[in-house]
Fold each of these.
Amino acid sequence: MNEMITITRAEYDRLREAAENLADFEAYSRAMAANEESIPAAAVKRMIGGESPVRVYRELREMTQTALAKVSGVNRVQIADIEAGRSKGSIETMRKLAEALRLTIDDLV
């Protein structure tokens, strides 16, 4: 049997917002249970805006280009070129940077 219920638009909007909040909470709970690193929204916005993931993650790790160069074995000038978009970096270079930043290569490309 099909039953129909009529509610006000305000009640519909309230229920819809509550469902979206619940979905957000469930996604957050799954992420926390997986014990994965969270990334600040500001950092995500920087990357979406076109900023180099290498620069964003390096700054999140509170590293200078020189410190990253030392840990990764990649020349500092090459890091600067990647961050400025003048170079993409080879797969090997990106692997070294990802390892030094404690990321996967997918996080950087």
Note: Residues 4 and 69 are 65 Å apart (CA to CA).
Amino acid sequence: MKRNLAQTPVVVYGVNLLLAGFGYYVLVRSLVRTDKSGRLAGAIGRDLKGNLSLAFYICGIVAAVYVNVWVAMAFYVAVAVIWFVPDRRMERAVEMAEERRGD
């Protein structure tokens, strides 16, 4: 039994994911810009997960159009797997702040 995915829904899904990822990017940048202490920027760091997610979404959209919809879906699933692994940046920043206060 062969299953085919239609190209258009996969592309639209990728665009939806990309827009949500871009919204996250704008939110994080806005929060970092308004934080006067700079602690949030230190906790966020380079935001590798966020930037990699955007790149994977773009690759998924391009793959759906020019390569294969299954390759595109693999990119979308890869982003979900990346974010499934817990992000410890904020936790580490809070622990460091508590250690500084305790000293």
Note: The longest helix spans residues 7-34.
Amino acid sequence: MQDETIAAISTAYGPAGVGIIRISGDEAATIADKVFKSKSGVKIKDQDTYRITYGYIYDQDGQLIDEALALTMRGPFSFTGEDVVELQCHGGIVVLQKVLALALKAGARLAEPGEFSKRAFLNGRLDLAQAEGIMEMINAKTETGVSVAASHLQGRLSEEIKACRQDLLELISFLEADLDFPEEDFERLSNEEILRRLTKVTEKIKNILQSFMKGRIIREGLKVALVGKPNVGKSSLLNTLLKTKRAIVTDIPGTTRDTIEEFYNLGGIPLLLIDTAGIRDSDDLVEKIGVQKTKEIVEQADLVLYIFDLIQGITPEDQAYLSKIPSEKVLILVNKIDLLTDGAETTLRNIRERLPQFRVLLISATEQLGIQELEEEIKNIFFTEGWEIKDKAYLTNIRHKTALEKAEQALASAQKTLQTGLPLDLMVIDLKTVLGFLGEITGETVDEEIIDQIFSQFCLGK
């Protein structure tokens, strides 16, 4: 299928200043010439690479469709490594679909999701980790996410993985020379030197694996559930954090019956804030369903912000509910401190005494008191060493993490082989297994089925 010329809309559907039809393959210029006529009369197939030509797009009957620019990029110096032509039209789904239909009628095949990126990988323009960085870039929720995705696209993670592979290849070459030519007189590695090299690679892999928690949060965000009884201020807190009236706030208990989910950028950390239905016994069927959904969300959440009303205080129902949640994933927020009175101070002391295992913060969602302290506490809970992104590779992909964990296990097996005095050829088998797992990340040793599955998750036209 790679010898076919493919085409697809490469920009988002909807009104826009510009929309792009991308064509890639040996016949890209020929197909483009059938639908695009330059004002100067120059054919695209005669254009030099990296040239933009102004002209018009016509259908088979000579009817004008749009004025456009045609950008020509000759392989192998294009994104896919093939000849590529991009027809840059006015944005709008009707126009783009008509132009795409003309390209398909002229001989192109509709590209599959991610097929342009897949061709870039197969043609050696990107390795697999870099290609996956493209989708991370598209799906990034914060500037921090964009920065990490850009580092993957530039090959920072790939460089560290390839450095580990190179260290192992050198070690394997020494060991195999020792096995294949036992009578030859050359310098052999001592067990201490072999162990030192194995430890060096193991430490590199451990360092990459340690970045996964931060990397996963950069990519997916933290799920933060706002939980508590009705009218304690969950929706008010959501609105305050988002700086918009996203949730309806009333004095009527049970106003929030279904969850409301919104992403919030906390200094580069994407938080998925989930406003939940108030926890209470109710005869209302819809409200009961909402309360059950709240319990399910609490189980999935990375952090639970359990909110108390300073005036209402704590009830046995609150304590029973909190006893079922691990204390390390709960942060107690005592809301409405702007209404603090002598009686409220007693309530606050009561909450702290009855919930000594939990961290407690004081806030006022409506007056925005304690909000900055709340944000800092969330950062401290998950990033004891700080949130700043350093100049290193971050692991964000569960596929990569799984491969590295398997590589680490195989390295441990190789070390055990060395330490127990088993034959070196068994160690070589373990080390080649490590190479295979590392190669899965960059694509050297990955199955075609996995490659297809990865690129199928890409958007059409990328």
Note: The chain has a mean pLDDT of 85.
